[in-house]
Write a structure and sequence with these properties.
By secondary structure, the chain is mainly β. It has one helix spanning 4-20, and strands at residues 43-58, 64-80, 83-96, 99-113, 119-130, 135-151, 155-171, 178-195, 200-213, 218-232, 237-248, 258-269. Strands 1-2-3-4-5-6-7-8-9-10-11-12 form a twelve-stranded antiparallel beta barrel. β5 and β6 (135-151) form a beta hairpin.
């Protein structure tokens, strides 16, 4: 029993840290929650979310358990004349004793051209990584045609479609073989935003990406959903609740095809 207790304690601590430590499993980014309502005028917006977790516990002096976690998110938006420029950085890191256990993140840059028009265009690039799922890195670049289907003061519905190039480097969990794949894909998404009240915003986004893989002589499909409820507390502070899931019908390596993420947190705006 004395030998089992430190192990049990270790995994209980990991579970507790993960409950409060924001995860970044989905590798397709929800851009809609970073868009603002105004379509005219030049201005900038910056959101910063920083967090840190430190746990030190041990059942006995020979089996210490030290956990250190850092998570940060930076959103920058610049609207200049007819166009918008968006940059997002996100990092999640968790270390158990001296061993990194979770290390995920991404950098995303997007340019929204002729943003105020009913028909507009987007150019984007992204670098991401997820050592928990043996992905390092994922490189994406593409363009979208974006169509505004409905837009008023409290409700909007948009549709986007376009080609994208994707390259991924996976490490096989059993053989440790590096698997290098790249695809041309069709990227299709639809987004909804609904202003429920003066202080509450709801938005949802669904991505569908498909590309042909000659290695298996078949198509690979990926679906991503993200829903967010943003409640404004003050002019500078908001509370955000989100639910996300990611599904791949044919993973490149043997990993769980369906993952989800439920998060709560504060957002500081400057």
């Amino acid at each position: 029993m004395a030998k089992i207790l430190p192990i049990v304690q270790k995994y209980i601590l990991i579970f507790l840290v993960l409950l409060i430590h924001e995860n970044v499993y989905p590798q397709i980014l929800n851009m809609e929650k970073h868009r603002v309502e105004r379509d005219t005028g030049n201005y900038s917006a910056l959101n910063v979310n920083l967090g840190m977790s430190i746990f030190t516990r041990s059942a006995d002096e020979e089996n210490p358990v030290n956990l250190f976690g850092v998570n940060n998110v930076v959103h920058f938006l610049r609207k200049q004349n007819e166009h918008a420029y968006i940059f997002i950085h996100q990092l999640n890191y968790l270390r158990i004793n001296e061993s990194p256990w979770l290390n995920t993140g991404f950098n995303h840059l997007r340019v929204h051209l002729w943003r105020a028009n009913q028909r507009s265009a987007e150019i984007f690039v992204q670098h991401s990584y997820d050592n928990f799922r043996q992905l390092n890195p994922r490189l994406v670049g593409g363009v979208n045609a974006r169509f505004r289907l409905i837009r008023d003061s409290s409700f909007s519905w948009d549709l986007g479609v376009g080609p994208m190039y994707e390259r991924e480097f996976w490490t096989h969990p059993y053989t440790e073989e590096l698997v290098d794949v790249d695809f041309l894909k069709i990227n299709l998404y639809t987004s909804l935003r609904w202003k429920l009240s003066e202080n509450i915003d709801l938005n949802a986004l669904v991505y569908y990406q498909v590309g042909y893989d000659p290695g298996i002589n078949d198509a690979r499909h990926r679906i991503f959903f993200s829903g967010n409820l943003l409640s404004k507390i003050t002019n500078r502070i908001s509370f955000n609740t989100s639910f996300e899931f990611n599904y791949e019908d044919k993973p490149i390596i043997p990993i769980t095809p369906f993952i989800f993420d439920i998060r709560n947190g504060l957002i500081f705006s400057f």
